[in-house]
Amino acid sequence: MSPKVDLYDNAYRNHESAIYRAVRIETYGEDFGQTSWVTTQESNEIPRLLGLRSDSFVLELGCGSGGYTLHLGETVGCRLIGVDINQPGVRNANLLAQSRGLASRVHFELCDASKRLPFDDNTFDAVFSNDVLCHLPGRPEVLVEMFRVLKPGGRVLFSDALVVGGIVSHEEIATRSSIGFYMYSPPGENERLMERAMFRDIRAKDTTESAARIAKRWHDARKKREDELVAAEGSANFEGLQRFLSCVHLLTNEKRLLRYLYVANKEHTPLGHSVVPAQFVSTDQLS
């Protein structure tokens, strides 16, 4: 069994560190404080996929240190709430909002997103979550809650990097799960659960190859700065994270674990709507 490894506390605690910033920039090309598999291209597409405007009210589940939420506040001009269970991340996010002059329209709350969300029905124009739902138990209930707080006509977007695409050993599962709680799902399960939660116009995009590239770049960027990172997080944790990233790259590169991006609407389409299985959706079909 692989020992537990800390990714998130170290990442959020060292958010302002030049070393961690350099790793993020080399990994993603830009710095939102990321700890996910979201590429720059995907980050740029999310506002369009969600149909965001300056008068939108948006919820992010699993905001981390808040960098991407704040980016949307700056570039789109909309109001946003980010929630996360990690206290250092939420604290850092609110400090960043204040320092950037965005606290009047972007704020962050400590919240367990696997429980009932502390918001009224039909509150948000869009709800999104980047690589977070795989950390939450009770996915059917989580999707129902996302539907509940979304306004009619609103859009939901989330990604799942743990769709099982092939044979995975128990050692690989242990290493892939070493940084926290994880839920693995079979192909088509997210679409089924979204439809059961009453989402419509469900679309899916296979982003596995991009996730594999992110994992490799992240591993290599950290390796270049091994001495500084060992000093910051300890040798055992450094090596554990390197094993984790190598495992992610191997499994995604061989497509034994898949990552999908999902978008859907809270509105009923005419009779005869259909859900297209993810494995049949091309990379240019999600729009």
Automatic annotation (TrEMBL):
<comment type="pathway">
    <text>Phospholipid metabolism.</text>
</comment>
<dbReference type="GO" id="GO:0032259">
    <property type="term" value="P:methylation"/>
</dbReference>
<dbReference type="InterPro" id="IPR013216">
    <property type="entry name" value="Methyltransf_11"/>
</dbReference>
<protein>
    <submittedName>
        <fullName>Putative sterol methyltransferase</fullName>
    </submittedName>
</protein>
<keyword id="KW-0489">Methyltransferase</keyword>
<dbReference type="InterPro" id="IPR029063">
    <property type="entry name" value="SAM-dependent_MTases_sf"/>
</dbReference>
<keyword id="KW-0808">Transferase</keyword>
<comment type="pathway">
    <text>Lipid metabolism.</text>
</comment>
<dbReference type="GO" id="GO:0008757">
    <property type="term" value="F:S-adenosylmethionine-dependent methyltransferase activity"/>
</dbReference>
<dbReference type="Pfam" id="PF08241">
    <property type="entry name" value="Methyltransf_11"/>
</dbReference>
<feature type="domain" description="Methyltransferase type 11">
    <location>
        <begin position="59"/>
        <end position="158"/>
    </location>
</feature>
